[in-house]
Design brief:
Chain lengths: 346, 305
């Protein structure tokens, strides 16, 4: 059930982005995959939100649904509303939607083998992205590209802009991707696993860069990752996703000190702590459910250690607790939080 | 080994002096291409042929059409390099002028086929779905038509109404769109899965911009290879038609027609068949070697060292 936050907290200003009951389904030959199944949340201006979940939980699909970049066919956004600054993006014609991509909402992609076009110079790509939305000369766009590269702390940007992606290191490519996402200064950034391909040191630097840029320019950030530890140092609010649904929506403090949903609890316990021996590391037993055939009731019940009869039959609804905190579990209250330190990556 | 390295350095040096950015894709492809000697020689041969075709009036020593019966069937000599035909016309001059016809057919019909094939292949691969279905059915339909016999029929019907040269060019071109369309579609299917395409969409690029600006440059190499092979095919087709007497009409010289005309004099004047045949052979071979060389140059897996 989508929860209208404006009713709950009348004093708060309108959120930058409000996602209400979005459903993104994939219609394949083998059946329907409910990649995103009724997801609701909101992002305020300047807020940094993490979407956490296993592979296939629907985190990236949620992010891509916001921009309406679901490959269609087979995918389709079948329901819900995505309200950005009062405009329902799902109702816009494609032409107008394009004006939102890059300009209002930017995406930072993962540095994969082909995340930048190998045919063009890095500077050209950033300049081109600027020229898609701005009426300016090539020289002005180039200046802008160099300025962006400087902003993402690439040294010697005038010369680096002249180079091709294959001449960049992984970390530099990731910086260039950030520059590409931010060149049209969007107010909302969606970072889709931006550091997964990088080594730990570079990862820390990139996270710091994203954080600095977001804070300095007061940008809202949706940070999609499977890595709780990385998100912990960056985000204010956490959305835990499981099998296409958000199961817990908490602030960073709330989640790390007192996780409510059993999945969130088990995720936190699975965090790798160097002081623990191999036997003490808790993996969550079982596998994520088959997307074609999700279990009846609560999707998590086959792996949940607190499963009860009702979990196998009735799907839990999202319940608002402690102000703006939400959880979807029949038995969230009877849990005693283990003593856990807040893990920070920085 | 040392010589190779030296040579590579020299080639890099030349390219840099020509203003080629060695870090760009073009620069790297060019460098790899230059290492393939057969392909480079083929490219030079074709370049010379095309230059000869362009500057034919300045190169041909004699008029290619005006008969001179005093010089009938002269063997090759210093005066007539490739000998003369039964009407006393200089074969070299006729081949030089004939190259204009043959090479034009090759080039223009390839251009026509690309004009249709490139947008079709891009649209088919990029959008997929029912658009792809329709285009692919059209591809299958077109490739089921035996183009040689289609042209034979059309020449029989309209051969005396419209210029046969352009008839052949356009029919080969229009029938030929399936080759590039199919090749390009396959490549587009691979390229559109790359992340930079999604990134381009996330930036707000239009479909047209993504297709032509982002996908095409990354898929175009299959087309370039196809172009060289297609040109060779078109030339063969045109010479074949002329050889059957259904192509370009005498007295205008065309390689296939020259070959056909020389057929009756194989015993007494073998040069009349040898030279045109040799030129067709060399041209088609050169195009094929060039295509192979380009394919290797564009394929990053063939890179050594």
């Amino acid at each position: 059930m989508p929860v209208d936050k404006r009713k709950l907290k009348g004093k708060e200003p309108l959120p930058l982005l409000e996602v209400r009951g979005v459903q993104t389904y994939y219609y394949t030959d083998f059946g329907v995959v409910k990649a995103v199944d009724g997801v609701s949340f909101s992002v305020r201006r300047g807020e940094k939100v993490a979407i956490i979940g296993e592979s296939g939980a629907g985190k990236s699909q949620t992010g891509m649904s916001i921009l309406r970049l679901i490959p269609s066919p087979p995918g389709r956004i079948v329901g819900g509303e995505i309200i950005y600054e009062g405009v329902d993006l799902l109702k816009l014609p494609e032409e107008e939607m394009r004006e939102y991509r890059g300009v209002h909402i930017g995406v930072i992609f993962q540095e994969a083998a082909q995340a930048l076009n190998p045919v063009y110079k890095v500077g050209t790509q950033i300049a081109d992205a600027y020229r898609v939305h701005h009426d300016c000369t090539k020289e002005e766009a180039w200046e802008k590209a160099v300025e962006m590269l400087r902003k993402v702390q690439i040294s010697n940007p005038e010369q680096r802009a002249q180079e091709y992606p294959h001449q960049f290191s992984g970390g530099m490519r990731q910086r260039a991707i950030i520059a590409l996402a931010m060149v049209n200064s969007p107010n909302l950034l969606i970072a889709d696993e931006p550091t997964t391909a990088l080594d730990v040191t570079t990862e820390a630097k990139i996270i710091k860069l994203i954080n600095d840029l977001a804070v300095k320019e007061d940008k809202a950030l949706i940070f999609i990752t499977h890595d709780l530890a990385v998100a912990a140092g960056l985000c204010d609010r956490f959305l835990i996703m499981y099998a296409g649904k958000i199961v817990e929506n908490s602030s960073a403090m709330q989640l790390f000190s007192d996780p409510k949903h059993p999945y969130a609890q088990q995720l936190l316990e699975a965090l790798i702590d160097v002081s623990k021996s191999e036997d003490e590391i808790m993996a969550i037993p079982g596998l994520p459910p088959d997307p074609y055939n999700r279990p009846k009731g609560c999707s998590f019940h086959p792996r949940c250690r607190k499963v009860k009869a009702i979990c196998q039959e009735v799907e839990p609804e999202m319940i608002t607790i402690e102000g703006d905190r939400q959880v979807a579990c029949h038995y969230y209250t009877d849990y005693q939080a283990p003593k856990l330190k807040v893990v920070s990556s920085s | 080994m040392a010589v190779d390295v030296l040579e590579l350095q020299q080639k890099k040096h030349w390219l840099e002096r020509l203003g080629v950015d060695l870090d760009s894709i073009t620069g790297r492809v060019l460098l790899r291409f230059l290492r393939n000697r057969v392909a480079v020689v083929s490219a030079c041969v074709l370049l010379v042929f095309y230059l000869i075709a362009i500057f034919a009036p300045w190169i041909a020593p004699y008029d290619p059409i005006q008969p001179h019966f005093r010089n009938r069937l002269e063997p090759p000599s210093a005066k007539f390099w490739f000998g003369t035909d039964p009407m006393g016309r200089d074969l070299f001059s006729r081949i030089v002028y004939g190259s204009r016809v043959s090479l034009t057919i090759g080039l223009v019909s390839t251009l026509v086929s690309f004009l249709f094939g490139i947008p079709m292949g891009l649209i088919s691969g990029y959008f997929g779905g029912w658009i792809d279905e329709i285009i692919q059915r059209a591809v299958e339909f077109t490739s089921a038509i035996p183009s040689f016999f289609l042209i034979l029929t059309l020449v029989a019907i309209w051969g005396n109404v419209v210029d046969r040269l352009w008839l052949i060019v356009f029919v080969t071109g229009i029938v030929g769109w399936v080759g590039p369309a199919r090749m390009l579609r396959g490549q587009v299917l691979a390229v559109r899965e790359f992340e930079f395409i999604e990134s381009a969409r996330a930036i707000g690029c239009s479909h047209r911009r993504i297709m032509f600006h982002h996908i095409f440059p990354n898929a175009a190499y299959v087309i370039i290879v196809q172009a060289t092979l297609g040109t060779a095919g078109a030339i063969l087709m045109a010479t074949g038609l002329s050889f059957l007497g259904l192509g370009i009409q005498p007295p205008s010289p065309e390689w296939g027609a020259l070959l056909n005309a020389g057929r009756n004099y194989m015993q007494e004047a073998p040069w009349l068949t040898i030279f045109p045949g040799l030129l067709i052979f060399i041209t088609v071979l050169a195009f094929n070697f060039l295509g192979d060389g380009l394919r290797d140059a564009f394929d990053p897996r063939s890179e050594q060292g």
